[in-house]
Amino acid sequence: MNLFNVIDEIQKVDPEFQDRISPRRDAIKNITSFGTKVAAAALPFAFSTLFKKAYGQTTSSVNDVLNFALTLEYLEAYFYNQGLAKTNLIPAADKGYFTTVAGHENAHVAFLKTVLGSAAVSSPTFDLTAKGTFADVLTNYNTYLAVAETFEDTGVRAYKGQAGNLLGNQIVLTAALQIHAVEARHASAIRYLRASKGVTIKPWISGSASVFNDTGIAAVNASYAGENNTVQGGVDITTLNAVSGKTSITAAIESFDEPLTKDAVLAIVSPFIVS
Amino acid sequence: MKTLTQDLQSEGMARRQFLRYAGTGAAVMAGVLTMASCSKDHSATVTNDHVDLGSGDIAILNYAYALEQLEAAFYVQVAATPYSGITTYESALLTDIRDHEVAHREFFKAALAGNAIPGLTPNFSTINFSDRTSVLGAAKAFEDLGVSAYNGAGYLIKDVNYLALAGKIVSVEARHASLIRNLIAPGSFADSTVIDANGLDGAKSPQQVVPIANTFLSGKKLAAPSLGIY
């Protein structure tokens, strides 16, 4: 992970970025020549500051979003690293899933730290049992899977809830959306694994008029609050045509994931944070 | 409080009024200079040889609507003519996905109302619907493409409410992509062919995605001069 990977990411997002950049984004027009004039150690911070200024969002507001994301990624990375380090927790057949997920969470930590530079928060100390709520999380695979599922679904909701704060920001919003989608892939895969163990669960968040938490674990209700919403942008999805008849409430719930506010996410993860 | 649907309708209305005032007809719609001179979003139009997605947020929503039309039509066909050897579990999952994609399609149609592009005519002649490998391979391609399309277009959205809606849909598409990949090869839900070394999913511009989508359309192709797609 280094700065040049970040530059690569930008070029992947938009190969013609330099050509089509608008005048008010002049700040990043000649990024390469700018880079050569800055001491290497100071580059990541200066670089990210440039991105943020170019899109009319204050550095502090964008950094707040990124540090919030980084804190969640620290927790996820720690959770998977600890799980993989336990010899008898994850069955051999499932190890590949977790190796993949852990690799991404560690990559997200490294990526966000690079973008934030010296503004990056450091990792909290974690208690994966959440003060005893999940006492056997690192010894009982079913508990581990359940907590993994909740972390991923919550992560998806957390990123989704921050998108509006990055409106129009080609670099940071796009990267956040790219991470958001990876977390959703993880959530689907962990749910798929849980289903393979006999748990009644789908890769997507389901529910009913009375069920917003489809995991069967009441302790994680807060992570699923509002997930059974069926009205989107003023449109009641259950009034729309389906292949036959109208859209079922189940399909209406499953076809849209819901965001969570930063405060709601912090309240969910706070039992996992010691300091 | 206005709904998003009303917002979109009024945006389209403003554009139509502008055009009438300017004395321009539909044929002029494709002119780039006309687009650039008008700060209002404009609605979709159909010319002799293409379907114009419009401009501004309407263009992005029509872009999403077009992709959802393709995905919905694909899964409707998959559910109607199940591939050889399909399991009960696979059938249930693919039927769920069909229902999600149809809901997405109908949502965009309702939200765009008078600004929506017409129904497109898919061409899936390259897909063998009786063959599991062909169907799941196509599903994987559609889902991965859909995810990267939403990721790559997100920053183009100007209205924060539309961005939020796109966010609500794209994670469901990513859940689909993950599941389809695991059906093809367990554990391949987010492998290095689709996620890069920084742990980032794909992001493709409309200029990259529309030509791919057009290969699955018979008849009129998609265009969006406002996005540099002709």
Automatic annotation (TrEMBL), chain A:
InterPro entries: Ferritin-like_SF
One Pfam family here: Ferritin_2
Annotated protein name in UniProt: Ferritin-like domain-containing protein
Organism of this sequence: Mucilaginibacter polytrichastri
From TrEMBL, chain B:
Highest taxon in the source lineage: Bacteria
InterPro entries: Ferritin-like_SF, TAT_signal
Pfam families: Ferritin_2
Protein's UniProt name: Ferritin-like domain-containing protein
Organism: Mucilaginibacter polytrichastri
